[in-house]
Design brief:
The structure is a homodimer. Chain A is built from eight helices and twelve strands. By secondary structure, chain A is an alpha+beta fold. The structure holds a DNA duplex.
DNA sequence: CGTTACGTTGAAAGCTTTCAAGCATCGTGG
DNA sequence: CCACGATGCTTGAAAGCTTTCAACGTAACG
C-alpha cells in the first residue's frame, strides 16, 4: 500500500480554515492511518448495510452519500469534499445506513475503525473534532431537509448550487465565480428530489436569469442572484477541524 | 432550582435499551447537571440563531426541532423524545441552526455547555456516547430526507408514523399497538413537507386502508400495513446511550 | 462509425397546493 | 349555563407545479 502522502505534508493542512494539529495529535494520526485509497469516479467506497473496518478522510475529489429505495429511487443525502470524514456511522452503529460513491476520481486516507476507541481515550481534542464533524453534517442535513421540504424547485436548485460553491470555495477549489462541477443533472435531480426532466428545466430557468452558466464540467455563478432566489443564509462556522 | 430527580434515580435508566453508567460516569454527570427545566407545550426551548449556555436531555414529553424560511414556511426536522440530547449544535458551533419547541409538557435535565470539554477530557466513554448520539441523529435525518425526497405523500406519512411509533415503543411509551400522539396535522404536514390539506387527505386514506386509527390524541396503528405502504426498514441500533 | 451517456423539449397526465367554506371541540367570560 | 373566539379537522373545486412518456440532438469513446 503506497504512502504518497505523509501526514506531515497533508495537503489538507494547507487549506485556510482548517485547524492545525498539535505534535501529539499528529503523532497519533500517523499511527491511526493505515493507508491510502484512490477511487475512480463511479466507484462505491462504502455500501449501505455493510460494516466496514475503515474510516476515511477525503483528501481530494468529490463524492456523495446516498440511499436507495426498493423501487430504485435514489436520494443523494449530501456531497463529500476534501476534509470530510466518511464511514463514522459504520463505526458507531451496527451497519452503514447509506452508501458513498466517488463522483470524480478521489484520494482518501484510510483509518482503522478498531482504534477509534484509543482516539477517544487518548486524544480528547480529536474526539471533540469528531463530534464537531458529526454535528456539522447534521447541520447540513437540516438545511437540505428544509430545502427539499419547503423550497420550490427553482429555489432548491439555487440553494444547492450555492451551497456546493461555498463548500468548494472554503477548500480553495474555486476560481473567482467559477469552479469545476463534476455532477450530472441526474445527480442534482436525485439530491433535489426532483425528476431529471424538471431539473433540466429549472436549471435552464436559472441560466436564463443569469444566475448560473454551466458548460462542460464548469459552472460559473452569480452568487448574488442565487442567494436572492434561494433565500440563502451563510453558514456561520469557520475554522473547522478534520482528521 | 428544584432537584426533583436525582441522577441515581434517573427515570431514563429504567428504560430497557438504554445503557447503564459506570459509578465514575454517574459522578461526573451529577456535577455536569446544573438543574432541571419544565416546559409547557408550545414553549420554545432553544431558538435558531442563539448560542445557548446549556445542553438538555429530555426526561419526559415530546418536542420537535424545526427551521423557518423567510416566507414563514416551517420544516420540522425531527422529533425529540425522552433520552434525546438537544442543544449540542449550539455548543460546538457559533450558533444554533434550528429551534426546539415543546410539543407536550416536557421535563428536561440541564447541563452546562462550558463543562463539555471536561467531559471529553475526563470521560471518553461519555464522549463516545455523545458522538454516537450525533451520528444517530444524522441517521434519522438521512432517513427523513430519503422520505421527503423520494417517497409519495402516502408513503411518507406512513413512514413517519411508523418511525415515531418505533421511537415511542423503545421508550415504553406505547401500549400494544396504540400510543399517545401529541402532534396535530399541522405538525405532520410540516414534517412531511406537504400542505395541511393534503396531509389530511393522505391520513384519511391511511385510515380507510385500516393502517391507522386516530382519535383524540391517541393513535392506533397496524404496523404491518404501515410498513408495507412505507417500504420500512427497521433501525438496527439497539442498546443506545444517553447522558 | 455505432454505441452509450447526457442534455433538451413538447405534450399529457397526475399529484399537490391553494382558495373557500363549513363543522366540531374546548375553554373562557358574561 | 350558554355565547363566542380560537384551534384543529374536513371537503370541494380549480389552479399549478412536477412527473411521466416519447423523441431527438450531441459529444465522447472504443
Amino acid at each position: 500500500m503506497p504512502r504518497k502522502i505523509p501526514c506531515e505534508k497533508c495537503p489538507l493542512a494547507k487549506i485556510e480554515g482548517f485547524r492545525d494539529f498539535t505534535a501529539d495529535e499528529l503523532e497519533f494520526i500517523k499511527a491511526f492511518k493505515t493507508g491510502e485509497l484512490t477511487a475512480d469516479a463511479g466507484t462505491t467506497i462504502l455500501a449501505e448495510g455493510s460494516h466496514s473496518e475503515h474510516l476515511y478522510t477525503v483528501v481530494s475529489g468529490w463524492g456523495f452519500r446516498h440511499k436507495l429505495l426498493e423501487n430504485g429511487r435514489r436520494q443523494i443525502l449530501n456531497f463529500v469534499l476534501p476534509g470530510d470524514l466518511i464511514g463514522l456511522q459504520g463505526s458507531l452503529s451496527a451497519e452503514m445506513g447509506h452508501s458513498v460513491e466517488a463522483l470524480s476520481d478521489m484520494m482518501l486516507c484510510v483509518f482503522q475503525r478498531s482504534r477509534l476507541w484509543e482516539l477517544f481515550r487518548g486524544h480528547p481534542g480529536l474526539a471533540f473534532d469528531l463530534t464537531w464533524l458529526a454535528a456539522r453534517e447534521e447541520r447540513m442535513l437540516d438545511e437540505h431537509l428544509l430545502s427539499v421540504g419547503q423550497r420550490s424547485a427553482e429555489q432548491r436548485a439555487a440553494y444547492l448550487i450555492r451551497f456546493l460553491f461555498s463548500r468548494a470555495e472554503l477548500r480553495g477549489m474555486t476560481n473567482g465565480r467559477t469552479f469545476e462541477f463534476p455532477l450530472t443533472q441526474r445527480h442534482l435531480a436525485d439530491a433535489l428530489g426532483l425528476s431529471l426532466v424538471h431539473t433540466n428545466r429549472v436549471l435552464n430557468r436559472l441560466s436564463r436569469r443569469g444566475a448560473i452558466k454551466w458548460q462542460a464540467h464548469t459552472l460559473r455563478l452569480d452568487t448574488r442572484k442565487l442567494e436572492e432566489v434561494a433565500d440563502w443564509v451563510p453558514d456561520p462556522d469557520a475554522r473547522r477541524p478534520y482528521i
